[in-house]
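Q: Trace token order:
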Amino acid sequence: MENLKTEIIAIISEVAEVPADRIGENTKMAELGVDSLDALRIISSIEKKYQIEVDEEHMGSVETVSDIINLVAVSA
């Protein structure tokens, strides 16, 4: 799970253009300046990397990095 967290933070860091060391599990996506388009880019990158399909219905409930990690873990 730690590796998953590190990899997802790296993806978020790249899309949000925020250093990975400033992103933690409890960091809110809004604090990173992530808008809905950025969120779609993050999810698209995650889906490609892990060859999964994330249920878009759950995207509305994503507020923190931890929420994304949990969403990926459930979708894998």
